[in-house]
Amino acid sequence: MFTPEYLDAADEAGWLVCEELPFGLVDPFRSQRYAPTPEFRALWRQTAENIVASDRNHPSVILYSMASELGEPWLRSRASFRTFSRDLPAAVRRGNPAALVTDCTGASDETGGRRAVPVQTRQGRRDTDIQASWLFWTGTFQPLLGPIPGLERTTLPYILHEYAWITSLPDPAARERMRRSPLLPLQVPDMIRAARASGLARQLGPMVAASRRLKFALLKNALEVARRQAGVAGYHQWLIHDFPFCPEGVVNEFWQEIDGFPAAEIRRWNGDAVLLLEDGGRRSFASGARPGLRVRVSHFGPEPLRHPVLHWHLAGSGGSVRSGQIPCGTLTRAMRLEGRLPATDRPRAVLLRCELRDGGRLVAANEWRIWGVPEAMPPPAGIVVKIWVASSCSRTASPIVPVTVDTAPLNCGVLPSISKLVPPIF
Helix, strand, or coil here: 189? Predict the structure, then answer.
């Protein structure tokens, strides 16, 4: 639910709002949704009508959801299905005929998130304008570069529910930020004490910074995967701001930019127009090869692009390697980047930077790191491989003791099988 002040701001800024009705956020009311009594059904219907009447004059409110995270019992209960997928959508449509309606954001069925919940179910057809399921894939990100499984049979525009749960280590500075506020830096002091007890107090700052870089790299990838996926019309990004114990946001707890990750950088891959790399699921290629990369434009801006031109630039540590520009026409297909990676005698990374301009105006920019790896390298000599095997067959609280099983100098043309180095220990 949103306050009138929030909706006023959304109207002014041009944000689009999904109004999720507050039915069953916590138990015991959450479980009540699967066996609703007549009294609850009447209460929910009247509440929905009141909410719609209060905010239907806000142009930012374009979508209403009848509930969040209905599980498989919703599809086994006739009363539950009728309430959330028939009666409540009908009441909302009567109150605001111009708005879109969905029966649930984050629905799941007997597959446990292995697929998007279909529109046609065992209880009949859902009254919904979109599909917005929870998918098991969003907790695993396998494969990391997509495609997203489970969307093969979607028939309506699809919105990913609470997408990209990616966190970093908590920020120790949160304690100072909250010192004079009513908020508590939950679990941050615990992390600091644990680091001191483990002898990692000096390493805590670099560890937090590294985990933050990893979080934003994975978030960038996750949002690009979603925008490349056919049928995905949007996502509920989780989250916009950090919690002290779970910093999943793109701004901190007070909606301030996070050091090293300004809003302008984040809008490269989470704006109206985003450039997407089609790389066939890989970012490393043979040195000197033609990787066959393509760039696609995901454009949800308010105006069409009339004369778009894609400018691309490939740069290594020694400066510019390749560059070019491609007139994009009507943006109906991905643009192929011609050229080879630099031929090198050892693995090297190059940075591919692309800009989309329309009549000279910068519309979007994005960049990716690409690796070139020689097909053959001389084997390094004199490498010593040490292998430790830690085992404990005891159920007591005694610590696991590392045991050196073998130490052998290897001329690493081809490493021997690990099974030849480590004898059976169980």
Answer: helix
3-state secondary structure of 359: coil
Contacts for 13 with CB less than 8 Å, ≥ 6 apart: none
Rounded to two decimals, the pTM is 0.83
Cα–Cα distance, 5 to 8 (Å, whole number) = 5
Q: Report helix, strand or coil for 394.
A: coil
Give the per-residue pLDDT at 115.
93
Number of other CB atoms surrounding residue 109 within 10 Å: 20
Handedness of CA 257, 235, 284, 340 (dihedral sign): negative
Instruction: Please name the residue that has the structure tokens 């002091």.
Output: 189
**By the 8 A CB rule, do 63 and 19 touch?**
yes
- Whether 135 and 107 have beta carbons less than 8 Å apart is answered as no
pLDDT at res. 304? 86
Distance of CA 30 to the CA centre of its chain: 26
CA atoms 116, 117, 119, 122: torsion sign:
positive
The predicted structure's pLDDT at residue 328: 83
DSSP letter at 122 equals: T
Strand partners, 313: 323, 353
For residue 55, give the H/E element and its range: helix 38-55
* pLDDT at residue 332, rounded to an integer: 63
Which residues of the chain fall short of a pLDDT of 50?
Answer: 389-426
DSSP per residue over 135-172, as a string? -GGGGT-SSTT-PPTT-TT--S-EEEEEE-----PPPT
- Give pLDDT, residue 330: 66
Plot region of 40 (φ>0 → left; ψ -120 to 50 → alpha; else → beta): alpha
Bridge partners, 314 (sequence order):
322, 352
